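Hi P.,

Sorry for the delay on this. The queue was packed all week, but I finally got your sequence through. Input first:
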Amino acid sequence: MKLFSCTDLTKRYPNGAFTLSDITLGLESGKITGVVGENGNGKTTLLRIIAGELSHDTGSMSYFGENEVAVLTWENIRSRVAYISQRIPKWHGLLKSNLIFEASIRGINGDEADFMVDELLEKLGLQEYADLKWKEISTGYRLRFQLAKMLIGSPELLVLDEPIANLDINAQEKFLADLRTIVTEPGRNVSVILSSQQLHEIENVSDSIVFLKKGEMIYSGEVDKIGESRTFNEFEIQTDLDISILKELIPEGGALNVVGKTVHVKVRLDLSAEAFLDIILKKGGKVMYFRNISSSTRRLFND
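Then the structure:
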């Protein structure tokens, strides 16, 4: 079931500096959708529109299987959507007390509230932080608190804007793993859409990817189908071989581009990553970094 869909969605800012153009996508229950692209290319604008934080100009949107937003009031929609922005709002008092309070304002009290909060604390690894204050908790666990707070309302659509931007790699992986657990829990009807510049991590956890460039949707589809219609393979490599030698090793029709210490290589489709690495090693090159981006949105940044 699609919990959100939009067709030809457009948002124009008054000063004309930026336009989000013709966005068409659907968000399904039990699925994670990643939104990637450079800063200033429309990720936050799109997520704020989906979350009901920002109006759109043209196009149509529907939520929770209804054909038109008008069928549902915005009050009803917002009660079923959870939005976590880049900046986590500061809270006062103890972490668990805040979650109990959140449950109470949603009409959940007594043993039911205690059970729900304790379950969320365990699920999100927050037990040892339950009696701590904001200043005593790291950024990663503040994010987990905010997620726990949102989940108390049992949202059907969870919208996260750059949630892992300020986390170390271990915290990123754990948080994304928790999201995967949440969307696949039996009985939970939820879809997650999140933005990030951490391409490898987002592609690893997402079912679908949206790539935005200058406000336009360059790619939208399943992660496994990225690069399916490509006409060449692409690799990133850091090696001690001189650039002139690398150029000689690239077969006819290929190309390379140097960005800092990393060389971006394009080669014909019949040259696999393994075969390319074999060429480098046989030439005596030492490989410090290598990534096959043929089926990653990373390749779209270079187009």
